[in-house]
Specification:
16 helices; 22% strand; alpha/beta; 20 strands; binds 3-methyl-2-oxobutanoic acid; three-stranded antiparallel sheet; binds zinc ion; TIM Barrel
C-alpha cells in the first residue's frame, strides 16, 4: 500500500511572484479551478497583506473551490495573520502559512536578531494563527542553509505551539539532494514531536536541483511537496508539479499523489498562456519536444514499440499524441506512419521509391509537414492561399492600438479593422474577423536578429485548431508584420488540410519519378 504525498501548489503565490507573470483575479480563479480538477490537495492562493489584489484573489479562490485546502501566506507578524484569516473566511478548509528565517544569514542580516528570538517570534505567530484556523503551516525560511540542530529546536517549538505542517524550504536552491534528504531525515529522527506534523518540502531551482531535492525529501520522510506548474517561480523557479507527480508515478517508490495526470498538459498550457511564460521546448513532461522523436533509429524503435524510447505514454499526461517529426534523418517507418495517417497505404516497393523522393524534399527543409507529403503523393502542392496584402497599425502611448489588415483569399481581397491590447493583438484580431474564426494562440515567441542596419524580428506562433497544433514563422524588419506573417503561415497550414481557401499549384520541379 502506497503512502500519500500531499501536493501543495504555489503557482498562484510563489509562481506569480515572477515579474511579468501577474494574473488578475478572474485568471487566478480559472487556474485555481483547474488545479482543483487536477487533484492538488492544497492551493496557496496568495499573500493577502501584500496587496489589495492578492487579498481579493484569496477571497475569490476561497469561494471558488471546494475540495482543496486554501492557504494564505503571512510573515510572523500579527497584522499579516489577521489579514490572511480575513481573506480565508470563506474557505471550506482554510490554512494559514506563517514563518520566519531559520538560517544565520536571515537571522543576522534580515532580522538583526538572535536564534532564540526568531524561535520566539515563530512560536508566537503559530499561536496567534491558531486563534483563527486549526490548520497552520510553519515555514522555516532558508532552512536549506540553516544549522540542523537549531532547525530541529525551532521545528519542535512550533509543533508544540500547534503547527500542523512544517515547511523546510531550500529558499536559495543551494542544497545537494543528499544534503537536503539528510536534513529531512535529521528532523524525522531528532524532533521529538515530529509525528504530530507533516513535513513539507519547498525547493527552488537555482542549481537545477529542485526536483531532485524534493524527491530526496520525500524519500527521507516528507509527505507534502510544494510545487508550481511548469516550475514557474522566482529566479530559476520552483520545483515543477508535473515532474514530481510523474516521478512518483513512474518509479514505484511506495508513494502516491492524487494528481489526475491526463490533466497535466492542458493546465500547463493554460498557465503558460495566462502568465505569458513560454515553456522551453525540452522541458521535461510538458515541453513541445518532450515526446518528439526525430532521429531515424528512435522513430523506428518507437513505432515498433513505444516502450523502446518512451518511459511515459504521452496520453498519460494529456499530450494528444507522440510526435514523430519528419526530417532528413527520419527513416522509412516514420514516413510510412505519416502517410498512413493521411490515408496513403503503400506497398513495400512504393514506399522505397517514395522514401527517395521524400529525402530530396527533406534535404532542403528543416522538417517535412503534411502539405509536403500531400505534394509528394499527388505531385500537386496544396497550400492555403491566404496572403497579406496590406497591414497598417496605429499604436503608442496616446492611442488605442488599432490595425487594418487586407488579405487575399483565393481571388478575393477582404479588409477589416480591429482594436486590441497591442498592435500585434489588434492585427491578429483583424485577421480573425476577416476569416470569421477565433483561433487559439497557444504560443507567441519573438527573437531578434540584430544586424545593425538590417535588424529583423523572427516570430514563432503556435495555434490550436480542433485539438491539433500548427506552427508558423515570419521574419521581417517590422515586428507586427513578422507576427502576422507567422500567424498566416500557421493558418495556411490549417486551411490546406481543411481545403478552405485551397489552391492547387503545380510544383516548380517534380521529384524524380519512382
Ligand atoms: O522559498 C521560500 O522560502 C518561500 C517561503 C515564503 C515559504 O517561498
Ligand atoms: Zn519559495
Amino acid at each position: 500500500m502506497s503512502e500519500k504525498v500531499h501536493v501543495f501548489d504555489t503557482t498562484l503565490r510563489d509562481g506569480e511572484q515572477v515579474p511579468g507573470c501577474q494574473l488578475n483575479t478572474q485568471e487566478k480563479i480559472e487556474i485555481a479551478k483547474q488545479l482543483e480538477a487536477l487533484g492538488v490537495d492544497i492551493i496557496e492562493a496568495g499573500f493577502p497583506i501584500s496587496s489589495p489584489g492578492d487579498f481579493e484573489s484569496v477571497v475569490a479562490i476561497s469561494k471558488a473551490v471546494t475540495n482543496p485546502v486554501v492557504c494564505g501566506l503571512t510573515r510572523s507578524v500579527e497584522k499579516d495573520i489577521k489579514c490572511a484569516a480575513e481573506a480565508l473566511q470563506y474557505a471550506k478548509r482554510p490554512r494559514i502559512h506563517t514563518g520566519i528565517g531559520a538560517s544565520d544569514y536571515h537571522i543576522k542580516h534580515k532580522f538583526n536578531a538572535t536564534r532564540e528570538q526568531v524561535i520566539e517570534r515563530g512560536v508566537a505567530a503559530v499561536k496567534y494563527a491558531k486563534k483563527f484556523v486549526e490548520d497552520v503551516e510553519f515555514f522555516a525560511e532558508d532552512a536549506g542553509r540553516s544549522d540542523n540542530e537549531f532547525l530541529a529546536r525551532m521545528i519542535e517549538a512550533v509543533i508544540a505551539a500547534g503547527a500542523t505542517v512544517v515547511n523546510i524550504p531550500d529558499t536559495t536552491g543551494y542544497c545537494l539532494p543528499e544534503q537536503y534528504g539528510a536534513k529531512i531525515r535529521y528532523l524525522k529522527e531528532n524532533v521529538s514531536n515530529i509525528h504530530k506534523a507533516i513535513i513539507s518540502v519547498h525547493c527552488h531551482n537555482d542549481l537545477g536541483m529542485a526536483t531532485a531535492n524534493t524527491i530526496a525529501g520525500v524519500i527521507n520522510g516528507a509527505r507534502q511537496v510544494e510545487v508550481t506548474m511548469n516550475g514557474i517561480g522566482e529566479r530559476a523557479g520552483n520545483t515543477s508539479l508535473e515532474e514530481v507527480a510523474m516521478i512518483l508515478n513512474t518509479h514505484k517508490l511506495g508513494y502516491e499523489t492524487s494528481i489526475v495526470t491526463p490533466k497535466i498538459y492542458p493546465l500547463s498550457m493554460l498557465v503558460s498562456k495566462m502568465m505569458r511564460m513560454p515553456i522551453q521546448p525540452n522541458k521535461a513532461i510538458v515541453g513541445r519536444n518532450a515526446f518528439a522523436h526525430s532521429s531515424g533509429i528512435h522513430q523506428d524503435g518507437v513505432l515498433k514499440n513505444r516502450d523502446n524510447y518512451e518511459i511515459i505514454a504521452p496520453e498519460t499526461v494529456g499530450v494528444p499524441q507522440n510526435s514523430i517529426i519528419l526530417t532528413a534523418r527520419s527513416g522509412k517507418h516514420a514516413l510510412k506512419y505519416h502517410l498512413e495517417r493521411l490515408g496513403y497505404n503503400l506497398t513495400k516497393e512504393e514506399l522505397v521509391a517514395t522514401y527517395e523522393k521524400f529525402l530530396l524534399i527533406a534535404d532542403g527543409k528543416k522538417d517535412v509537414d503534411d502539405d509536403d507529403l500531400i505534394q509528394l503523393m499527388t505531385g500537386t502542392k496544396q497550400t492555403g492561399n491566404i496572403e497579406l496584402v496590406q497591414l497598417q497599425v496605429t499604436c503608442g502611448t496616446s492611442s488605442t492600438p488599432t490595425a487594418t489588415v487586407a488579405l487575399k483569399l483565393g481571388e478575393e481581397i477582404v479588409k477589416a479593422s480591429e482594436m486590441g491590447n497591442g498592435p500585434v493583438n489588434a492585427a491578429m484580431r483583424a485577421v480573425d474577423k476577416i476569416l470569421s474564426e477565433q483561433l487559439d494562440l497557444e504560443e507567441y515567441l519573438v527573437q531578434s536578429n540584430i544586424n545593425r542596419s538590417f535588424d529583423t524580428a523572427k516570430v514563432h506562433v503556435r495555434l490550436c485548431h480542433k485539438n491539433k497544433s500548427y506552427v508558423g514563422f515570419g521574419v521581417d524588419t517590422d515586428i507586427v508584420t513578422a507576427s502576422i506573417q507567422a500567424y498566416l503561415n500557421a493558418i495556411n497550414k490549417i486551411y490546406s488540410l481543411t481545403s478552405k481557401y485551397l489552391v492547387e499549384e503545380k510544383p516548380a520541379a517534380q521529384p524524380a519519378s519512382a
